[in-house]
Amino acid sequence: METPTFARAARLWAVFGCVTFGGPAAQIALMHSELVERRRWISAEEFTRALGFCFLLPGPEAQQLATYIGWHLHGTRGAIVAGTLFVLPSALLLWALSVLYVLGGGSPIVAGFFSGLLPVVVALVILACVRLARRATTKPASILAATLAFLAFTFFHTPFPLVLLLAAGVGYLLPSRFTDTVAPTVLVREPRTSTLRPAAIAAALWLIPVILLVVLERGLLARLAVFFSATSVMSFGGAYAILPYVAQSAVSSGWLTPDQMLAGLGLAETTPGPLIIVLQFVGFVAAWNQPGTLPPLLAATLGALVATWTTFLPSFVWIFLGAPHVHRIQNHVRLASALAAISAVVVGMMASLAFWMATHILVLSSGGVDVVAAAICLLVLVSHRLGALPLVLIGGVLGVARAAFTI
């Protein structure tokens, strides 16, 4: 294996932050191709171990994988640079797109562009749900967990944290129902001298601003800080896992409308980096809609900053705490079973999100026109003729054309 200089590694992380389109699967594949196969900065075995560890953590697994590899190569500073540069370009780009969205909201052309994104986003959610279901619901217990989660969230509005905790508890107690291996593995406690201090600093940087906002501001920014801190702890399974909870909570709280939520998803698909960056859009629009005594754009920017800070900073805490123990944690059978149960619940949550989108957005907004468009988008994605980014752009252009003909 080759150990790159810190500057060389930083340049590559910056490049990754600008070109990692296509969701976590494409981002992980790109890192494997560049870091394992081409540059040989990390072995295939270590990469696989790190990936298994990151899948056990809440939050964006691709960004966490980059953070871990940065730590593996250059310690704490490597982790900070890798994890930050993986997110920063998409955060800046999405902020600019969010400004365009709110300032151009009264334009029929701009509104048409965002309406054209709706069927594409629905198709992407359905496809992601199907793909995850193939991996996560291979056992009867997993199928039952996914079905119950769908019913609980769709028709009984059961709180997402409660469903998540129940699933994790059942999976931990019944490993034979969710995994093929039932032999117990003991977690060996190793010293944390090298990462305890940066983990504590990261936790302080995350939690102290939240506490100050709650104590001093006591307004929307404080509520956003608490809400997104909670979602960062619960977001096992990637962005699509937490989106039903975020969408339901944000809409029911009056922070943004269902159409705005889907527009944010469409914008997040057009930016590089983790898809969970969509939470920044939620914070931006929520503060724009309820600016209080601040100018709307300043309030929205602060809302976006709060959402981004509380969404991504916890990832550094998890990596610093767990990095020295990767070899042990990823082989813990009961943890693996708990994760399998959570993954099954995530399938039900994603199905609930797709159902909500199809019934509350497509059918009601366009009388069935967007339902057909969503079906076509799904067929195109399944056939692998186009990726997500080109399809999102095409949907936006068609939305503009439809708006132009109706002006």
Rg estimate, integer Å: 21 Å
Q: What is the average of the pLDDT values?
A: 83
* Unreliable sequence segments: 182-193
Helix content: over 70%
- Tally of separate helices: 18
Domain module tally: 1
Q: Supply the helix-strand structural class.
A: mainly alpha
What's the N-to-C terminus distance?
Answer: 61 Å
Residue share in β-strands: under 5%
Order of helices and strands: HHHHHHHHHHHHHHHHHH
Overall spatial form:
globular
How would you sum up the major sheet?
none
* Count of beta strands: 0
Overall description:
The protein has helices at 6-19, 23-38, 44-55, 61-103, 108-136, 140-155, 160-173, 175-178, 196-217, 220-234, 239-252, 258-269, 278-289, 296-322, 326-329, 333-366, 369-382, 388-406. It has one domain (94-407). It contains 18 helices and no strands. The radius of gyration is 21 Å and the shape is globular.
Topology of helices and strands:
Elements: H1 6-19, H2 23-38, H3 44-55, H4 61-103, H5 108-136, H6 140-155, H7 160-173, H8 175-178, H9 196-217, H10 220-234, H11 239-252, H12 258-269, H13 278-289, H14 296-322, H15 326-329, H16 333-366, H17 369-382, H18 388-406
Helix pairs in contact: 1-4, 2-4, 3-4, 4-13, 4-14, 5-12, 5-16, 5-17, 5-18, 6-16, 7-16, 9-10, 9-14, 10-13, 10-14, 11-16, 12-13, 13-14
